[in-house]
Automatic annotation (TrEMBL):
Cited PROSITE patterns: MFS
Membrane topology recorded in Swiss-Prot or TrEMBL: Multi-pass membrane protein
Name of the protein in question: Bcr/CflA family efflux transporter
Chain ranges of the Major facilitator superfamily (MFS) profile domain: 27-411
Lineage: Bacteria, Pseudomonadati, Pseudomonadota, Gammaproteobacteria, Moraxellales
CDD domains documented for this protein: MFS_MdfA_MDR_like
Organism: Psychrobacter pocilloporae
Keywords: Cell inner membrane, Cell membrane, Membrane, Transmembrane, Transmembrane helix, Transport
Amino acid sequence: MSAPKSSLSKKPITAERVRSADLPVAWIMMLGLMVAVGPLSIDMYLPALPSMADDFGVSTAFMANSVPAYFLGLVFGQLFYGPFSDRVGRVKPLYIGMTLYVIASILCATTDNEYVLFVGRTMQALGACVGAVVTRAAIRDRLTAKQTAKAFSIMILVMGLAPILAPSLGALFLQFFDWHSIFWFLAAFGALNLLLTKFFFFETLTEENRNVRPAKEVLSQYWDLLKDPTFNYPAIGGGLLMGAMFVYISSASELIMDTYGVSATHFGWLFGMNAAGFVGLTQLNQWLTNRFRILSILRFGTMMQVLSAGTLFVVGIFLGTDAWLPLVLACIFFCIAGLGLTQPNASAIALAFQKQRAGMASALQGSLMFSVGIFGGLLLNLFPLNPVLKIGIALFVLMSLGAFLIWQIDRNLNLDDAE
């Protein structure tokens, strides 16, 4: 029987269906929609924080605590869904997570208590993170290592639009409705993902490839995973590189708006430009993987990020806030855009050899990224330095550590051995 063509249609699971010879573009783009629920939930309600604070009778700074409440749910939720999906398959966790997400979004839309909102935001994250875990694992189940790198690039093309458009979409809702409408929209988006799961997401994990080890061994399995050099170097190294982006997000408004006096509208354009650079290089990555080794592309992208962060670090030392804004923005642009060459390839290498624990590997990789972002953002606020030097130090240290780990990956690693 020949390998199936690219399609969204649901079919019985077979070996050929799981390891397709063709790149299923429509299916991958659907997975991108499932992952996009995360960035939409993070960014879309940010313009509503002041009006939400007024309604609840608290300060905007207090209401902003709902952001780390969401990140906390992302870290721990992924660690649960990983081993769960390795045991029961990829479909059931999607139903559970997205149902929880819809319920949590409705709770956020209807509550009149700020603490209930914080609980609802954490529940939202616990539900939304299933998309990131399961989709990465499903891609690894079905595709070869080289196809996986291409698939992540396609998926980022879809989900990467979310952080570009989400703040503007949230502001648009506020022009016609109140902040509750944003959470009703997110609930509807979660319901859409449930429908996509029902009608178009087929099971990719065959019975023989499921992890049947006792559930009580989950912690030891995570520890074994962290000791595996085919996983730990690309996963932790890639997590440090990606975590640097969350550090940038934490400090961007202080640096660009407060320090340089850029307006909110222009700030949105600059923020979107960096996201567009990230998405653009992920698409270039598809072309590059046909011509170069995945590890070579990963190392090139890593060096681009380190050199850009190092330049920003030097600029911060010698010029500080007197530095020319376009120079600062150019350094940041290449730091963030470079993720388009590092993230798809680091993920592909990290998951390549994790046949029976791809879900756990996907979960641990995602949790590492957000942990670095949360920890790095907190450290950033402890430095009594000028904003340019502060972000320069944070990005340079994280990316240098990431580069060190990337260079520990065996240069002779043959990803074809993973098939």
